[in-house]
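Hi R.,

Here's the input for the uridine-5'-diphosphate-xylopyranose complex you asked about:
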Amino acid sequence: MKISVIGLGYLGSTHAVAMAQLGHNVIGIDPDDSRVQALAAGTLPFFEPGLEDALRQAISSGNLSFQTDHDDLSAVSDIHFICVGTPQISGQQSADTSYVFAAASQLAAVLRPSSLVVGKSTVPVGTARNLITNMRKATGFTPKLCWNPEFLREGTALADSMSPDRIVIGSDDLEYNQALKSCYQKMIDQGIPVLELDLETTELVKVSANAFLATKISFINAMAEIAEASGADAVRLAEAIGLDNRIGKSFLRTGIGFGGGCLPKDIRGFIARADELGVGESLAFLKEVDQINLRRRQRIVSLATEELGQVSNKKITMLGISFKPDSDDLRDSPALEIALRLQALGGIVTVHDPVSLEALEKKSSGLISESDLLAALKDADLVILGTEWADYKKLDPEAVSSLPRVKTIIDGRNVLSVEAWQKAGWRIIAPGRNIVND
Ligand code: UDX
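And here is the predicted structure with uridine-5'-diphosphate-xylopyranose in place:
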């Protein structure tokens, strides 16, 4: 099939490659010329394991190309996917849908009545219906529109796109879904379930799934607060409750909390939308989910301050700065916020990260970047593990014990072996646990 993918950020770039891998002829469109040039040359604007190789293969197979303009789209595409971002509006809770409306209006200028428009962006409930109204006004016909949320996670983006747990399609007419189902036929043949719903339910599926995941993480982090106050251990608690099949163990990892470009802004946007709909009280609990999450960052700053006595002029090493491993995304990263707060308290903060230092440099944060792990640990008064990269999980505490000035580590992600680190002479501290160090 001939496909266009509008918006080449995380979602769009991955979707374009995935569709090319399914054998479709794909054109990726983005107004940013340098991004388009880089993608056409096989370079991703972000780090994602395996995706750059897949991008290059797709380009050389002739299935994938990139351009900045929409003019010839109607001639070259049967399905147009809208994959633009919906970031949190600065100073507000709501999601900024202006890029979605702009993409739809540019598309309307060239759209054929037979073509299908598929929204993949995460939008507040009601957006798709407003888009139909706008596009109808611009084109003079009712556009065929489906909503089809994307559930990919950074770090496993391509695999998640090619093998999602489910395909959810929302529309006003089941007939519209046919072309999209044909597009995904190879995935459907693998047995991936397809749910065909109305537009509003489909829009809600994405934001409510993310709200549920955020709630699960904040639940266990609230238990961490109780554990800290009562002498319990939230990691063992999570293990014990997670073995109940009705609860399940995923998304119960306690630590410095969630971040990234999705979960935080999606719960805030969802709260704002519920307020607009006059049912703000239904999502009042999500405000608490957000607050619990943000308190975890301060908890690490407090633990660091307790350890150091005073932070000023102390050398602190932050291991990992991205919001999760296998990503260089610094959006709403808990590790970055903790590092900046410690720096604001006068700490000299050195950051190591396997891939995110380039992204950090662009922020001019004042944090010291060190690409050599051993050099980063040298002379530290305190080490904090902020992102659970594999490199840190396999660190040999014995081998690095001579490097820091003070052998204390705060394991912000609860991934290190307390026994092994203590045996090597380290003090190890972790949120949600009451570890006894000699
Ligand atoms: C999320 C959703 O999982 C995905 O379906 C959606 O499409 C986009 O948002 P992503 O933000 O890439 O994906 O990462 P995810 O793996 O969900 O992690 C989000 C944050 O939660 C990370 O900061 C992670 O470290 C944190 N997390 C996750 C925890 O703190 N504890 C956990 O148990 C799981």
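One thing worth noting: The chain has two domains: 2-197, 200-438.

Cheers,
M.
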